[in-house]
Amino acid sequence: MINPRQTLAIASFSGLIAVMLGAFGAHALKSLLTQYGRLETYELAVRYHFYHTLALLAIGLLMERISGKSLRASAVAMLAGMILFSGSLYVLAIFNTTVVVFITPVGGVFLICGWALLFYSVLTNKSN
């Protein structure tokens, strides 16, 4: 499974991509997204991408203090959720296609699972 260093590296890369996609959407894609009526969808994708990048970063830091499969599973669920949720919204907004809309709720479920696993990990942690 995923280790702390990998989690922090993935979170760092995800932050880089989120900034790039946010800037790309605000400048290069703005007229296209406005034309499609998908600017808010794109902004939602970027916002959730950032929120969960920060959560993944926190999980990576916690992994250095707390061990356990549930914390590692939380990182994997967060990553899968970010890719599926934000990724499907990026595709929806940029290509103005609804073919991916069934993926978005699956990504949301992964994000919820990631938060639930993080909550469980913290509650069951025996160390100080």
Structure description:
The structure is a single chain. The chain has one domain (4-124). It is built from 5 helices and no strands. By secondary structure, it is an all-alpha fold. The chain has helices at residues 4-26, 30-36, 39-63, 69-95, 103-124.
What's the SSE blueprint?
Layout: H1 4-26, H2 30-36, H3 39-63, H4 69-95, H5 103-124
Helix pairs in contact: 1-3, 3-4, 4-5
Describe what is shown at a glance:
This protein has helices spanning 4-26, 30-36, 39-63, 69-95, 103-124. It contains five helices and no strands.
Rg (CA only)? 16 Å
Major beta sheet summary: none
The tally of strands reads 0
Q: Number of DSSP helices? A: 5
Proportion of beta-strand residues: under 5%
Quaternary state of the chains:
single chain
Catalogue the unreliable spans: none
Summing up helix and strand content along with how strands pair, one would put the structural category as: mainly alpha
Mean pLDDT across all residues, rounded? 95
H/E topology pattern: HHHHH
User: Helicity level, as a percent range?
Assistant: over 70%
Work out the count of structural domains: 1
**Gross morphology:** elongated
Descriptive tags:
elongated; single chain; mainly alpha
